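Incident log, support desk, overnight shift.

02:14 A customer reports that sequence design results differ from what the structure should imply. Their input is reproduced verbatim below. On-call engineer (initials T.W.) acknowledged and began investigating.
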């Protein structure tokens, strides 16, 4: 398996700037995230404070970011990271579509604003999962609930319907859904995940649903769930001024590294995170 110098997780301004800097420093970089960058960029109405690009619409800033990255030869691997494992002098990265390896990691996943559902942490791995395509085969002929934070997650629900006997899909967004006929779309608000040794019920604001598994599909997984042992403070990863975390070889930038939540700050920190990763790689070689 190819071992990358730097794996960057997240394709918002933090991750894209980190990847561009890695290219400038001639590093072998893997950028994992969304080919369309970040919803937090795309959806912004008007941005007044991005240097050199006054009064720009989010969708135009998104285009500018992506075309800059492309012009530098940055490729985005459209995949979602589920977990990262330190393995001595490198890291194993488990993602929805496969495994990857890298000598260093930059976390640029943005911040998860929502709290976990009651029962979510307790039943993680016991019926609660964050990746439908990874675990679908385990739910053959079973009933699953999928909580989708954006229309992108409908693809996961469709995939699950090829295995499960029943798929209940709970969209948390306003856009119309377009899942296949086998997916039952339910417009209720999930409140709690219940079980004994494993999950048996998803409770919403209106009903209890008997299920074998609950898939919680958010834009980002909380950092502590992504990498065990990572020092966190609330939804953030604790970093120093060099964007270094408590785990050697792991760096963080952007919203995940704390407030203020700003594009230019995310991009600036992405630059620092890569320069710190480059220094780390030099030390590693010695
Ligand atoms: C509506 C709105 C308007 C805003 N307006 C402004 C403004 O005017 N000025 C300003 O400075 N800031 C503004 N912000 C804040 C700004 O959007 C954020 O500070 C910025 O986007 C943070 O960038 P980031 O790179 O840290 O993360 P994000 O932009 O959140 O990007 C993170 C990316 O990582 C991906 N990701 C997450 N987890 C994983 C995973 N496990 N595997 C793979 N990929 C993953 C996500 O899908 C996402 O694409 C606004 C935010 C919103 C929501």
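02:41 Re-run completed on a clean worker. Output:
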């Amino acid at each position: 398996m190819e071992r990358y110098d730097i794996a960057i997780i997240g394709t918002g301004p933090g991750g894209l700037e980190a990847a561009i800097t890695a290219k400038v420093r001639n590093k072998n970089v893997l950028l994992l995230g969304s080919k369309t960058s970040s919803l937090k960029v795309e959806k912004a109405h008007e941005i007044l404070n991005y240097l050199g690009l006054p009064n720009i619409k989010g969708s135009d800033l998104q285009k500018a970011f992506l075309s800059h990255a492309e012009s530098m030869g940055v490729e985005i691997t459209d995949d979602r990271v589920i977990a990262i494992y330190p393995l001595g002098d490198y890291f194993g990265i488990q993602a929805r579509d496969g495994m990857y390896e890298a000598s260093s990691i930059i976390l640029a996943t943005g911040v998860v604003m929502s709290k976990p559902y009651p029962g979510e942490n307790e039943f993680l791995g016991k019926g609660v999962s964050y990746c439908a395509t990874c675990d679908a085969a385990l739910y053959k002929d079973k009933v699953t609930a999928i909580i989708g934070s954006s229309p992108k997650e409908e693809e996961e629900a469709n995939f699950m319907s090829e295995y499960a006997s029943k798929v209940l899909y709970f969209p948390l967004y306003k856009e119309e859904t377009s899942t296949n006929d086998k997916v039952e779309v339910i417009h209720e608000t999930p409140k709690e995940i219940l079980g004994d040794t494993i999950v048996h019920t998803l409770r919403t604001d209106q009903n209890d649903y008997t299920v074998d598994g609950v898939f919680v599909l958010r834009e980002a997984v909380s950092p502590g769930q992504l990498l065990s042992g990572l020092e966190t403070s609330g939804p953030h990863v604790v970093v120093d001024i060099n964007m270094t975390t408590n785990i050697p070889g792991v760096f963080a930038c952007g919203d995940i590294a704390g407030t203020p939540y700003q594009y230019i700050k995310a991009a600036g920190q992405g630059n620092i995170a890569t320069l710190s990763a480059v220094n780390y790689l030099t030390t590693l070689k010695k």
